[in-house]
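Q&A FORM
Asked by: J.P.
Topic: structure of Cytochrome c

PROVIDED:
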Amino acid sequence: MKWIMAAGVGLAGLLAAWLLLFQLPEKEAAAPEQPSASVPEVEVDAASMETIYKSNCMGCHGSDYQGAMGPALSQVGSALDRERLYAKIAKGGGGMPAFEGRLSEDEIVGLANWLEDFK
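REPLIED BY: S.T.
REPLY: Here is the structure written out as tokens.
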């Protein structure tokens, strides 16, 4: 009885190795997330963006943009362009909640433009 189980496990291992070596399709490179639309460059009222930040973002990203539960934003404009910032704020993802519906379109656009200047 033991030899039947051992043979079954051995055959399953051989089948798995064969499938891994010869049958799996090649891994496709994941395309970077492309924003669906361009975000207009608008003049930003820094004081109002700071107020929105303090009300909605500071709890996760820190009072000095240093990061806390969320990543640091002190140089986020070097890593993400305005469109990606807009998408992240609006749709969330990776632990960040979506702010579409909580913030107005103008507020999200303003935050994206404001954060893009953090370089």
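FOLLOW-UP: Residues 46-116 form a domain with the Cytochrome Bc1 Complex; Chain D, domain 2 fold (CATH 1.10.760.10).
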